[in-house]
Amino acid sequence: MDLLTIGDFYRKRYGRAMELGTSVVIAISYLGWTAAQLTALGLVFSTLTGGAISLQTGIIISGVIVLAYTIWGGMWSVAMTDLFQSVMIILGLRDHRLVRRRHGGRARQGHRARPPRRESSSSGPRAAPRNGSPSSPRS
Predict the structure, then answer these.
(1) Tens-digit pLDDT profile for the chain (139 aa)?
(2) Is-contact 136 122, C-beta < 8 A?
(3) Which of 11, 26, 29, 125 is most buried when burial is the number of CB atoms within 10 A of its CB?
(4) Looking at the domain assignment, is residue 70 inside a domain?
(5) In sequence order, which residues have a C-beta less than 8 Å from that of residue 10 and are 6 or more positions away?
(6) Structural domain harbouring 44
(7) pTM to 2 decimals?
C-alpha cells in the first residue's frame, strides 16, 4: 500500500487536508509523552549527581542527547535504544525477583513483614457495639 505513517493512510483515504489534521493532532498528543520522558531523564541526571545538575539542566542535556542520536543514527538508533532499554528492564525484573526471593519476599533486609492479623478470641477484651448498647443484656 506504500504507507509509512498514519498520516499517509489518511492522505490516501481522505485527502491532504485530513493528513495534515491527523499529523497536527498526533504531534500535539506526543508533546505530553515526550515532556514526561525528558523530565524523567532530567530527574535521573539530577538524582545521580546529587543535585549538582538541576532538573532543568538535566532536561536540556537529555533533549540534546536524544536529538543528537536520533539525527545522526536515524530510526536505527531509536530501535537500538528501545532494544537496550527492553533488555535492561527484563534483567532488572529478573534481578528484583531474585532479591525478593533471597530476602524472604522483602525488597530489603531492614524491612520487617507485618505480623499476621489475629482474629478476635473469646479470651480477649471485647469492643463495645457501635450503637452504644451493652453487648449482653443485664439481669
Answers:
(1) 788 888 889 999 999 999 999 999 999 999 998 999 999 999 999 999 999 999 999 999 999 998 998 899 888 888 998 999 999 999 999 988 888 877 776 555 555 556 666 765 555 555 555 565 555 555 4
(2) no
(3) 11
(4) yes
(5) 18, 19, 21, 22
(6) 6-102
(7) 0.52
List Cα–Cα distances, 82 to 39, 46, 63, 74, 91, in angstroms. Answer: 18, 23, 16, 13, 14
The answer as to whether 10 is a domain residue is: yes
Among 29, 22, 61, smallest CA distance to 45 is for 61
6 touches 22 (CB < 8 A): yes
Whose CA is closest to 36, among 57, 54, 59, 52? 59
Domain membership of residue 113 (yes or no) is: no
Q: How many domains does the chain have?
A: 1
For residues 81 and 60, the answer to whether their CB atoms sit within 8 Å is no
What is the per-residue DSSP string for 18-38? HHHHHHHHHHHHHHHHHHHHH
Round to the nearest angstrom and report the end-to-end CA distance of the chain: 90
Closest CA to 22 of 38, 37, 7, 11: 7
In this structure, is residue 118 part of a structural domain? Answer: no
